[in-house]
User: What shape does this take?
Amino acid sequence: MFGIVKKIVSLSLEKPKLLLAVVLVLLPVIFRIAAGFLVGVNFDAQYNGFLMLTNVVLWLAGGIGLYAIIYIFKGSEVKGKLSGVLTASSYASFFFTLWLLLAVLVVFLLIPGFFAGVKNAQGLDPQTAMQALIEEFPQPQNEALLTAGIGILILAGFIVLILTFYTYYSIITLSSSEKPKRNFFAFIVFMLFLFIIGVFL
Assistant: This one.
């Protein structure tokens, strides 16, 4: 699995594809829209447009920030590879979309009627909608299976997180010559940068 991620990052740095990167960045929102359409949830153009814009802004900020950090720690070897860094970093959204797909499947299979409840709650203010969902929350067919499903989602979420971190670390290591200590410190600084972006955005 890690080998595949490393090959993806290497190929992205060598042959950047920004159009593909944009699609991957928007993929979680596209999946959300498709899932909403399938369960009958009304399409909110303004909200979905906001989500798309947010995803793109965060991706650009993260990619440019990562490029700048690599440049500071490892010098001009990374010069001219911004598009490659952006392309490689977009795969974090792809991994997250896979987790979303798994989450929807688990809920659909183990909690029948949940999405019907979501559909009935649309149009209500968030607090009222949440209260209605809690009051009418459908009972799972098998609590043991539900527990197992939640466990699978937690495990899958952890795997996605590790793959995402490994993607960023691979970008740092493959974008210029091997300098283990600088790679590590660059990665730590980038994690702090992402944390700051998450807090303020």
